[in-house]
Amino acid sequence: MSSRTTIRDVARTAGVSITAVSHALNGKGTLSAATRERIRETAERLGYQPDPLARGMRSSPLGVVGLMLRPLDTLGTYRPTGVDYFTRLIGAVAVECLERNLSLMLLRDLSKLPRQPLALTLDGYIIADPLESDPVIDLLQEASLPFITVGRVPDRPGFTDWIGSMDEDETELILRTLQERGARRIALVTGCDHNSWNLDSASAYRTWAERHGMPARVVARPEADGTGGGRDAVAELLKDGDLPDAIYCLTGRHARGILDELTARGIAVPEQVQLVAGADSEQSRSASPAITAIDLDPELIAAQAVEQLTSRVMAGLPAEPTPLSTHLILRATTLEGGHA
Fold it and tell me: In 3D, which of 163, 89, 198, 189 has the Cα closest to residue 325?
């Protein structure tokens, strides 16, 4: 068999998940003896050879955890203006690692060359907001490297080693909050990255709109467009002359652009259009009026991600389902309750 046989080939032939193959070949997890032996026989028959770097990592731990921020990989910059969620997340992960006598290494997209030195030899990895068909996930699984994701992996329902809030529940909370404040024509503005935040939020919004007899109006703009993307979204929403009475915008930078454009057009916020951001940021807090937003609590996310990675995933155990709560911060871009 060709030396290019991958762990995915073994999983497909054996009829199991990639994680099961990794656990069987590395003596981890809770697989039955029969399943473990069947996987090993399949791997031997196909001529599968695990990545030697991964084997070296397991035999000689470095005491280093890797952190990848997939939204910033696709954004093209690791210092986006007005976005402090990721700097808060990085700092919190670093502190959690320090508490466990571990070091933290920030990593760029591992699927692209050249890679940073030692990038594939770390003890474990945290992947923030993985993408649909994410090559980084493929790479780590094929190398049998332990990792946990912040956010669901969109196209892998069998992958359970992830933590995070439920994007569908957050969307329901925002829509219900706006409805309680009189909104009846709510539009949604998302980013274009194919991650669970964008996809699940849009799905939940459409389901809610159908349930409440409200026309669904979804506008997607690239995250890299920043405030300009928010301005463009307003132009798109207004081109047919039908002004929504509320906008739920996932990213803080888009939300700031939406507010600026509505104000420039003489549209009063929140009297004519209410506005909520799905992620609190420097730009939502410093806006005038300040934008109602969800605090995603990156410190709590960091604590859970590092704990689950180091105590379970790196030991060959599945991550424990841990729902994380978020907090809606009501500010001046939403009306007081009872306006229905």
Answer: 163
Instruction: Please calculate the CA angle 335-218-198 and round it to the nearest 5 degrees.
Output: 95
Measure the CA–CA gap between 327 and 338, rounded to whole angstroms.
Answer: 20
The two three-digit tokens of residue 324, written as one number: 């994380």
Note the pTM of the prediction, 2 decimals: 0.82
Q: What is the pLDDT of residues 261-311, one digit of tens each?
A: 999 999 999 999 999 999 999 999 999 999 999 999 999 999 999 999 999
Tokens for 198?
């964008």
Q: Are residues 113 and 199 in the same domain?
A: no
Question: How far from 173 is each of 146, 243, 254, 278, 292, CA to CA, in Å?
Answer: 34, 22, 20, 11, 13
- Cα gap 200→139, rounded to integer Å: 25
Residue 295 and residue 298: Cα distance in Å, rounded? 8
Tokens representing 156 are 């892998």
Range of the domain at 7: 1-47
Query: Does residue 58 surpass a pLDDT of 60?
Result: no
Strand order in the sheet with 64-69: 103-107, 64-69, 124-128, 147-150, 162-163
Per-residue pLDDT tens digits for 31-51: 888 998 998 889 888 877 665
- Structural contact between residues 73 and 130, judged by C-beta atoms closer than 8 angstroms: no
Q: What is the CATH number of the domain that holds 40?
A: 1.10.260.40
Q: Which of 195, 190, 177, 196 is nearest to 274 (CA)?
A: 177
Same domain, 81 and 100: yes
- List C-alpha distances in Å: 130 to 54, 164, 231: 21, 12, 27
Which region holds residue 232: left if phi is over 0, alpha if psi is between -120 and 50, else beta?
alpha
What count of residues does the chain have? 340
Helix or strand (DSSP H, E) at 162: strand 162-163
